[in-house]
Amino acid sequence: MRVCIAEKPSVARDIAEVIGAKQRKDGYYEGNGYQVTWTFGHFCTLKEPHDYFEQWKYWRLEDLPMIPSSFGIKLIENSGVQKQFKVIETLVQACEEVINCGDAGQEGELIQRWVLLKAKCTAPIKRLWISSLTEEAIRNGFQQLREADQYNNLYAAGSARAIGDWLLGMNATRLFTKKFAQGKVVLSIGRVQTPTLAMIVQRQKEINAFVSEDYWELKTLYRETEFTATIDRLKSPEKAAKGLAYLQEHLFEVTSFEKKDGKEGNPRLFDLTGLQVEANKKYAYTADDTLKHVQSLYEKKLVTYPRVDTTYLSEDLHPKVPGILQDLTPYSALTAPVLAKPIPKLKTVFDDKKVTDHHAIIPTGVYPGGIGLEEKRLYDLIARRFIAAFYPECKISNTTVLGKVGQVPFKVTGKQILEPGWKEVYANDVKEKKEGEEEEKILPVFEVGESGPHTPRIHQGKTSPPKAFTEASLLRAMETAGKQVDDEEMRELLKDNGIGRPSTRANIIETLFRRKYIEKKKKNIYATQTGMDLIDTIQSELLKSAELTGQWERKLRLIEKGEYAPDTFKDELIQMVTALTAEVKTASYKFITIAPETPPEEKEKEKGKTKKEAKPKAPKAPIVLEQLTCPKCKTHLLKKGNTAYGCSNFNQCGFKIPFTVADKKLTDKQLHDLLTKGKSSSKNNKLSLDEHFNLVVA
């Protein structure tokens, strides 16, 4: 018997269907010589400090640094995890071969390897490595199973990352908390989290220190075209008035007229960060929401594997592109011009050297039916970007006109789109103008040497502060270790030194929000006072520098390629943690307290209340019922219908629970209690689930 282990029940079901394991058992499918089982995310984790030594259970400065002689793993304390692990353990110990069907990436490899290690697997292991979950991709993957050893370096990098994060996170968090925190406050420090916060704090300080200044510019209108003086901005209205008087005494003369044809290259295909950036700019989606939605599209077989950091396709995909475009029937009006000619094998799209484990995110060609608005929007971004990649370049004409009034030089630039090319794909979009970007403006033809009367004026403006980070700009800053880069080629080169991985950056940002180190106002991200105090307290540049963290990230990528030893990486971090501990233990700085800010509208309400009543409470986590597993089959997630919540595998499982009982709408809290505890109460009734998971009203 061959045992396949997938990372989710839904993926296991898809695989089982394709390979003929159609008999449903408790915790797995069986048939055709296969048993297909699953994890649901991380089953194992690195041991906690107290698992090594009892005294490490207590947070004491004298016990730091905590450096285990060797790192061990343990099963997560969760009854559902432990039950499913027993199934995996039993199957693995009795089989002749294991097929690792985990997500084809570093995190997926780590999840599966730890489970197999914990299950004491001795059977030979093969690896299923696929970029989409379509039936064709799964079938082809099983015909070309790879040796598990091919991915030893990927596992080594994932393991080194986890150990590095444990060493720094566990030690530094305890170190700074015990040294600088007051009360029950925990000061969370992380290898990626802290330099990300440091970037936000630095920007915040620049904004706070900024003092807006008035300035004056000279402009003039000549032949219905407005020119701007290219001298330094004037700092006083008196100087501007003098300048205006001077301009009124002289004619305008054209000194140069230059018109150049150029091209605007096609937008790159999406990697995960690029998709998160675009979704944040266009729809204000958080990085975390975008990741969840695109992961769902992947599991629905609509797009390829999303946790990628390349914008290229492998060259062997070139012959498959016409078929995918042909299948994008909702976009047939846009694909028709591309399909009318052979698909060009563009170096900006196809490059094996730029593709490692996976290629860029593209549609699979499966029809996108029955998906919600958020997923539909993301699918549209991915599909249009894929189509646009094969359109002709956009041809433009750039015009620059120079002139002078007396001795004062003037300039105006214009841009004209000659052939829209790939911009046809986005013809209906409302385009946001980027700062400094030239909007389309057609200028008249000027002759060098011509001159004539003009209408000068003074323009008064104010200097602007640095822009606060949005999730889009923060993701780009993480990708390039804080360097401001617009050029796509340069961005590709810097990816190896980016901080975090595409799949983890969203979670890092969410952690900073959760810890109240940062907050969001509209789309902008700001550091809180706690976040600023924490960064000010950390004297070690190693902890705060995005560039240095980017160097660690590069070493992890080298481990993945087999070009750097994991033990060397671990030893370097041990040395760093040891030095950091010695430095902080002797440091003196102010204590940090977290004072939750009260919203302005709440402050008025609290006036006149007793101190006890006004005491701020920690916000409750929102109840999201769709994240719960069905209590009956304990396998599939719940799904919201029109009148009830039900098992997402309702046709087979049959479990559902209505929104309304005895004409009373149940609250999310009541539904949550029923689903997790099996009982709840409404105003007039006691509710419970019987042994067959039917609702009983008493």
UniProtKB/TrEMBL annotation:
Top-level lineage group: Bacteria
Catalysis: reaction(s): ATP-independent breakage of single-stranded DNA, followed by passage and rejoining
Gene3D superfamilies cross-referenced by the UniProt entry: 3.40.50.140, Topoisomerase I, domain 2 (1.10.460.10), Topoisomerase I, domain 3 (2.70.20.10), Topoisomerase I, domain 4 (1.10.290.10)
InterPro entries: Topo_IA, Topo_IA_2, Topo_IA_cen, Topo_IA_cen_sub1, Topo_IA_cen_sub2, Topo_IA_cen_sub3, Topo_IA_core_domain, Topo_IA_DNA-bd_dom
Positions with biased composition (Basic and acidic residues): 600-616
Entry-linked SUPFAM superfamilies: Prokaryotic type I DNA topoisomerase
Stretches the record annotates as Disordered: 598-618
UniProt keyword annotations, A-Z: DNA-binding, Isomerase, Metal-binding, Topoisomerase
Transmembrane segments: none
Protein family according to the UniProt entry: Belongs to the type IA topoisomerase family.
Name this protein carries in UniProt: DNA topoisomerase
Organism encoding this protein: Chitinophaga nivalis
